[in-house]
Amino acid sequence: MCGILALMLADRHGQACPEIYEGLYSLQHRGQDAAGIVTAGNKGRLYQCKGSGMVSDVFHQSQLRQLVGSMGIGHVRYPTAGSCANSEAQPFYVNSPYGIVLGHNGNLINGPDLRRFLDKEAHRHVNTGSDSELLLNIFAYELQRMDKYRINENDIFEALRNVYDRVNGGYACVAMIAGFGVLGFRDPNGIRPLVIGERDTPHGKDYMLASESVVLTQFGFRNFRDIRPGECVFIRRPDRDDLLSGQRGPTLFSRQIVPCKRFRPDIFEYVYFARPDSVIDGLSVYQSRLNMGEKLAYNVMKRFGEDYANKIDAVIPVPDSARTSALQLAQTAKLPYVEAFIKNRYIGRTFIMPGQQIRRKSVRRKLNVQLQEFFNKNVLIVDDSIVRGTTSREIVQMARESGAKNVYLASCAPMITHPHVYGIDLADCKDLIAYGKTEAEVAESIGADDVIYQSLEDLVASCTTENVSDFELGLFSGEYTTGASTEYLVHLEHMRMVNNRARKNSFAEDEEREAPDDISLHNTHSDPSLD
Ligand SMILES: O=P(O)(O)OC[C@H]1O[C@H](OP(=O)(O)OP(=O)(O)O)[C@H](O)[C@@H]1O
Ligand SMILES: NC(=O)CC[C@H](N)C(=O)O
Ligand SMILES: [Mg+2]
To answer: How deeply is 265 buried, as exposed, middle or buried, from its count of CB atoms within 10 A (0-12, 13-18, 19+)?
Structure first.
C-alpha cells in the first residue's frame, strides 16, 4: 500500500513543498520503504527529492528548501511490484512529452503485458521493475500520440481513456505535468482510494488530492469528496490568459473517463491500512472498526456460551490498529478492556516491514507486556487481522510467559487465505497462516487456546453504507475484482522471491539487478532564482 498526495496552490508564488512534506507524515502508515516529492516551478522546471526510507530519513531541511514551486506531488512507498531498490522510489519522471511525474498506489495485474507493449510497440525505455513506471510510460505514450505542441485538459482526458483501456488492476494515481497542472485518477472499480478537497484563499482556491482524508482535514481543506471510480480530475494552474482576464487561482476540470465497472473499494483499507480518522468512500474508518468490534463481540459470546463472562477476564487489544474494535467488543460484551500490551511509538508498523526475520524481531521490540494484566487470567486478545501469524505467535507466547491461564485470540477480519493483488504485499498462499487450515489448526499453530474469526458476512456488513455495499475481497476468497491470471500470481510469487534474495544480497547468475539509484531527474543543485 502506498500513500499519494498532490497539491496546487492558488498563489503562484506560494510554496507547495512544506505541506506536501508534512502531509506525507500523515500518510506514513501506508508505506515505510521510500518517500519522494517533486515540485514544479513557474517556468516548468521540476525539483525532486526521493529515496529509500521513512519521511524523516529522506528529507532534510536543506533539500526541502530546494523543492520550490506552488504545485507538486508526493509519495510514500510500500513495494508490491518490482523491488525495494532506491531507484523505485516514487514519483517517477519521464521527460517526454512535456515532463510528467507520477505517483501510484496499487498494482497492475497486466504488468508483464504492458512491459512487452512498451518495448515492442511504444519503444519506450523502462528502467526498473516497478509497475508504476509502466503506468507512467503508458500515459506518456498516449499523450505523445496526440502530437501537440501544447495540450489542454481534453487531451489529458482523451489520453487517459486509452490508458484505462490498456491497464488492468487497482490504481489510484496523482500526476503532474510540468508548467501545466496536477491530476488524479482512480481505477474503474474504485479499488484504491483517492480524495480531493479545496481551500479558499485570497488568491483563489487551493486544491489537494490524497489517499486519505486525514491529510485534507489537517490542512484545512473542505468540501472534500472521493474521486469516483473511472474519474479523473485535472487542476490547471492559471495561465497567462487567465491572469490577463483577472481569473484568480487554478481551474478544476473533472471527467468520468470510463464508466464505473463495479464499485468495489478494498475492504482491507478499513480493516488495517487506513488511519481511523480517515473517511473513505463515505464511511469513517473508525466507525467501520467499531462495527467490526460489535459484531465480533456477538460471535465471541456465542462461541463461549452464556457464562462467557466467567471464561474471559480481560479483552486486550493488539496496538495499534485493533484498539478501536477491541474497545467496542469489550463494551458490547460488558467485559473489562485492558491495555496490557504497550507499544513503543517509535517502531513503525511491523506487517509492512520487508523480510520475515525483521518483522518477527520487531513485534517484541514494538510491544511490551504489563505482567499483572496477564498473570493468572483468561485473556481474549483482539487483533484486526492475522496474516502470516507473526504477531499472533509472539503475543500469545508473551501472554503465556506473563502467566496467563488461557489465551484466546479474536480477529476482526475473516481467515486470510489468498494473496492480495492490488497493492498490499500480504504473502504467498503458503506463508499465510490460515491457508488450508481450520480455526482449530490456526489456534494450534500460534499456540492459542482458541481463535475466533469474524465472518465475512459480518465484516462486509460492518463496512456497508448507502454508497457502498460491494467490496474487493480477494484475500478471503481468491476471487479478484478484475480477475488475476495464474501467470500473474506466479509472477508475483517470483518477484517476492527475487526481492527476498536481493535483501540478502544473493543474486542468481542470470538475474538483472536493480539500479541502486534513480537516473531520471538530477537537479539537486536547483536554482530557485530561475522561478
Ligand atoms: O499476522 P501478521 O503477519 O503478524 O500480520 C498482522 C498484524 O500486522 C499488523 O500490525 P502492524 O504492526 O503492521 O501495524 P499496527 O501497529 O497498525 O497494528 C496487523 O495490525 C496485525 O497486528
Ligand atoms: N503499495 C503500493 O501501492 C505500491 C505501488 C507500486 N505497485 C509499487 O510497488 O511501487
Ligand atoms: Mg497490528
So the answer is: buried
